[in-house]
């Protein structure tokens, strides 16, 4: 299977840099799967699970929290607000964040609903990637 260069950059570090045969992630328009020689495009990333398919057949799964992607025929660049592997996630903190967001959404008065929904989505993605639903 053809490969392409994948680079995932966070504000303070390069999260991943290497070759991949496919990468899957969530955009504001839905889920996408990118292979080598994909049509060029730019996407706005939504919080979700990111799966990197490596040349050896293995997969690297991480939580991707917002950003942008640039897809070219031979490379994909992801500029992420944050990205983390499951073993890097503080499960207790993610559960607490999910509960806080749920409580805010139940109040409905005087809250930014979109912000609370985004916080809940991020927490649920983190729990999913960490293996704790």
Automatic annotation (TrEMBL):
Main localization, broad class: membrane
Bilayer disposition of the protein: Peripheral membrane protein
Keywords: ATP synthesis, Cell membrane, CF(1), Hydrogen ion transport, Hydrolase, Ion transport, Membrane, Transport
MF terms in GO: ATP binding; hydrolase activity; proton-transporting ATP synthase activity, rotational mechanism
Stored InterPro entries: ATP_F1_dsu/esu_C_sf, ATP_synth_F1_dsu/esu, ATP_synth_F1_dsu/esu_N, ATP_synth_F1_esu_C, ATPsynth_dsu/esu_N
Listed GO CC annotations: plasma membrane; proton-transporting ATP synthase complex
Family named by the database record: Belongs to the ATPase epsilon chain family.
Cited function: Produces ATP from ADP in the presence of a proton gradient across the membrane.
Subunit comment: F-type ATPases have 2 components, CF(1) - the catalytic core - and CF(0) - the membrane proton channel. CF(1) has five subunits: alpha(3), beta(3), gamma(1), delta(1), epsilon(1). CF(0) has three main subunits: a, b and c.
Identification of the protein by name: ATP synthase epsilon chain
Species annotation: Lachnoanaerobaculum umeaense
